[in-house]
Design a protein that fits this description.
Strand order of the largest sheet: 5-4-3-2-6-1-7-9-8
Structural class: alpha/beta
Number of helices: 4
CATH topology: Dihydrofolate Reductase, subunit A
Low-confidence stretches: none
CATH superfamily: Dihydrofolate Reductase, subunit A
Radius of gyration: 16 Å
Number of strands: 9
Strand content: 25-35%
Order of helices and strands: EHEHEEEHEHEEE
Number of domains: 1
Shape: globular
Mean pLDDT: 91
Length: 205
């Protein structure tokens, strides 16, 4: 099945976590990282995020060019009062992978699996999808071998800890069907702010 090119952007703590058990604090990385986030969004035709991350960060997924704003949820228990549904921007598309889901005025609801949804995006002319987590969604994309580019902000100034704190591929558990190989194509340390910006590209044969 044809799919768009998919990039990922996440910030990780010094111990490789994307959040703490008690939720990560809002705005825990630098202004430089936030500017990088906006620049990465600007090149996308669609933005993709899991419902848990959307709600934890109160995201509106605004970006230059008004890309599609796509949210994935198992249950489809979307909060119709969330800022995403009341802010200007690209069209909102919701994917429910299990259950019926709750319709939200102004949003397009889809039911099915992630692979089918990505195929639909490709059919609609979406060529580049940019995902901002969370870990479960990234793991699902990795299981499909559907990650082409990975952008990480390594925030050495923060230590989350905790065996149940998720990494970029979710809470430690089942292994991927196979390891995925990437080339490090950009390494940009920023010692003054305690962060390093990293970009990886999927290794091709």
């Amino acid at each position: 099945m044809t799919r768009p090119q998919i990039s990922i952007n996440l910030a990780i703590s010094a111990d490789g976590k994307i959040s703490s058990v008690a939720r990560r604090p809002s705005g825990w990385t630098s202004r430089e990282d936030h500017a990088r986030l906006l620049a990465l969004r600007a090149g996308a035709d669609a933005l993709l995020v899991g419902r848990g991350t959307l709600e934890a960060d109160r995201m509106t997924l605004k970006a230059a060019g008004d890309p599609w704003r796509c949210v994935v949820s198992r249950s489809g228990a979307f909060d119709a009062g969330h800022p995403l549904f009341h802010s200007p921007g690209g069209p909102v598309h919701l994917l429910v992978t299990e259950g019926v889901g709750q319709e939200v005025v102004g949003a397009v609801m889809h039911r099915g699996n992630l692979a089918e949804f990505l195929g639909m995006l490709a059919d609609e002319g979406i060529r580049r999808v940019h995902c901002e987590g969370g870990g479960q969604l990234v793991f699902a994309l990795a299981e499909m071998d559907a990650i082409d580019e990975l952008h990480l902000t390594w925030a050495g100034h923060r230590l989350f800890g905790g065996g149940e704190a998720p990494t970029l591929s979710g809470v430690p558990g089942a292994f991927l069907p196979a390891s995925l190989a990437f080339d490090l194509v950009d390494f940009d340390p920023r010692p003054a702010i305690g962060e390093c910006f990293l970009t990886y590209r999927r290794k091709t044969q």
